[in-house]
Amino acid sequence: AGVTWKVGNRDSEAAVADRYRKGPISSTYAMQTEVASMKAQNAGLKGEVSDLKAENEQIKAQNAGLQSEVDQLKAQMAAMMAKLGM
């Protein structure tokens, strides 16, 4: 004698089965619609990632410029402090 355990629930299985229940032709159309939707979403996300990468590069360049200014100001402060004997 043996015991079998099933982990999970059948709700998701029933939802998938209902979507494709009408047969192979309609399930193909349903799948094509889903794939087209996913491709459109993927293209949108790729564009968004590209925009964010460009923005990130601009921020990096701006940060490098600001760091250069900070370094110059530190050097000027050090020179002034040395001149004042502090």
Overview of the molecule:
It contains 2 helices and no strands. The model has no long low-confidence stretch (mean pLDDT 86). The protein has one domain. The protein is mainly α.
Notable traits:
single chain; mainly alpha; 83% helix; elongated
Poorly predicted runs: none
Distance between the termini: 90 Å
**Average pLDDT metric:** 86
Shape: elongated
Largest sheet: none
Number of folding domains? 1
* Element pattern in H and E: HH
Query: In angstroms, what is the radius of gyration?
Result: 31 Å
The computed structural class is mainly alpha
Q: What percentage of amino acids are in beta strands?
A: under 5%
Number of helices: 2
Question: Any chance you could write out the topology, listing elements then pairs?
Answer:
Elements (H helix, E strand, L loop, with lengths): L10 H10 L3 H61 L2
